[in-house]
Specification:
The protein has 223 residues and is α/β, with parallel strands linked by helices. The chain has seven helices and ten strands. A hairpin with a 2-residue loop joins strand 9 (206-211) and strand 10 (214-220). The structure holds adenosine-5'-diphosphate and magnesium ion.
Amino acid sequence: MFEIVNLKKTYVPKKGVPVEALKGIDLKFEDRGLVFILGRSGSGKSTLLHLMGGLDSITEGEVILNGVSTKNFKPADYDRYRSLYLGFVFQDYNLLSELTVEDNIALGLEVAGKKTENIEETLALVGLEGMGKRKPRELSGGQRQRVAIARAIAKDPGIILADEPTGALDEETGEAVLRLLKELSKEKLIIVVTHDRDFAREYGDRVIELSDGRVVSDTQKLA
Ligand code: ADP
Ligand code: MG
C-alpha cells in the first residue's frame, strides 16, 4: 500500500510570492493497477509526482510506503527509497545521450545495487530487442520512451511514476506506450500524469483529477 496523507507543497521563490502548489492531498493506492492523474497545466500534477517520488521536499503531510513514512528520512534514506522502490519515466525521457541504450539502463541498476545481466530481457519486454548498442539519438521518440520505461522497470520496482510519458509522442506511438504501461500494471502500481482524458478513460483503472492543488474527482473503474 502506497499512501499520501494531507500532502502540501508551497514553493517559496527567491523573488515574488509563495505558490501553494498542493493544498492537502489524501490518496491511497493498491499495489497494482494503472492510475491516471489528470488536471490542467499548473494544477499540481508534477509536484504531486515529485513529492511521491522523493524528488522534492514535502512542506507538510506524509508519504507512506508499506507502512513506512518518509517523514524522518535522511538523504541516504531517500536515495534508497527512490532507487529500490520507484521507477521514473519523464516526458523528455531523461536518457544520457553519450551512453548506449544498455548503459543507460545499467546505470540505474548499478545505482540500485542490482545485477545488470538481464538488460536484453528487459529490452525485449518493451519491444527493443537487439537495440542495446545504439545511442538514444539513433532511436525514434517512441523507442526512446520505451528505453526510459525499460530503465524504470529493469530494477523491478513496485511503483512506476510517469510524468506525461506520451507528451512528446504522436498518438499512435503514445498508445503503444500506454498499452505497455497497462501490461506492466498487472504486476505493479503505475501512476501516470497526463492531460489526455480519452487515454485515461480508456486505459485507466482509476482516474484522479487535480485542480488548483486539490483532488476534485477520483473515479475507480469497476473490474
Ligand atoms: P502541473 O504539472 O499540473 O502543470 P506543477 O506541479 O508543475 O503543475 O505546478 C503547480 C504550481 O506550482 C504552478 O502554479 C507552478 O507554477 C508552481 N511551481 C511548480 N514548480 C515550481 C517551482 N520550482 N518554483 C515555484 N513555483 C513552482
Ligand atoms: Mg507537469
